[in-house]
Amino acid sequence: MVRGQGRPYARDGRPLHPDIRVVSGDLLDQTSLIAAVEQSCPTEVYNLGALSFVPVSWKQPTVAAEVTGKGVLRMLEAIRITAGLSSSRTTSSGVPRFYQASTSEMFGKVRESPQSETTPFHPRSPYGVAKAFGHYMVQNYRESYGMFAVSGILFNHESPIRGPEFVTRKVSLGVAAVKLGLMDKLRLGNLEAERDWGFAGDYVRGMTMMLAQDEPEDLVLGTGITHRVRDLVEFAFAHVGLDWRDHVEVDSRLLRPAEVELLCADLSRARQKLGWKPEVSFEELVAMMVDSDLRLLTDSEDAAGEAVLEQAGLW
Ligand SMILES: Nc1nc2c(ncn2[C@@H]2O[C@H](COP(=O)(O)OP(=O)(O)O[C@H]3O[C@H](CO)[C@@H](O)[C@H](O)[C@@H]3O)[C@@H](O)[C@H]2O)c(=O)[nH]1
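# guanosine-5'-diphosphate-alpha-D-mannose complex -> structure
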């Protein structure tokens, strides 16, 4: 996405005013990326494109490498070629600033907790490996060509428009469907995995702040608070007055070949450098998502509601 004016995401997660949008498939095509940068003359480029659902990356590891990994390199090349940069000695004024969506998945089998900018990577999926490739490429282009290119190492960020295959949305949709009598059981995988979940809108604010710095620097953005999937489920069902133990079943087919068991951000550097901190709590986030899905399933035609539940694997 190339940024427009003002805050790019509203509180409900709707994108606002992007000048141009490059979809993930375009990351496979160097020529179209160069044309997009040439035609739009952006001042800032945010690469949020990826094959981002971790389980699919085991099924399609080469696609993950091409889009999520090499796609970053193609985007960097599009900026470098368009700007005519050949070494760090060429001037980089007028060159668009570049933001890369790096991820806490790169920490994988974590070496320490909480995880900061200096924690070593140990990715546990083809997705995590591809993201680590992109992360190091950004660092490399910054050092080789003097580009203002940064990676935000973002922990899980969610909203009511999260894809229904991800666990927060699968749970909010499942809770809403159970509450409305559309289904009785929600099947999940590993209930013990711990994640640092925050509201996507807070993270987008952090991304824009990273590109407004005087000097480029990679930063961790997260809440510093973790919850288990089990806690997420318990809180979401309790929000509508139900007991999760009556409605949740573990399905071993949803377990991953290798799991990232624990993620927890050390956000002290981002606080210090940007003055950034999340504004929406975990409890507010889950309540926001469950309420939104209750409205969605109540208001939508039967077929539309069934389609979104089907996408989440719930129908
Ligand atoms: N999706 C899913 N996850 C489940 C389920 N049951 C348990 N989980 C567990 O819930 C955790 C979170 O899974 P996801 O919501 O799919 O997200 P993720 O794998 O942590 O990856 C997300 O966050 C990353 C940042 O850390 C992003 O980089 C990535 O693209 C994605 O948005 C994982 O430990 C997963 O095993 C289920 O039925 N579905």
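# post-check
Residues 24-154 form a domain with the Rossmann fold fold (CATH 3.40.50.720).
Residues 61-83 form the longest helix (23 residues).
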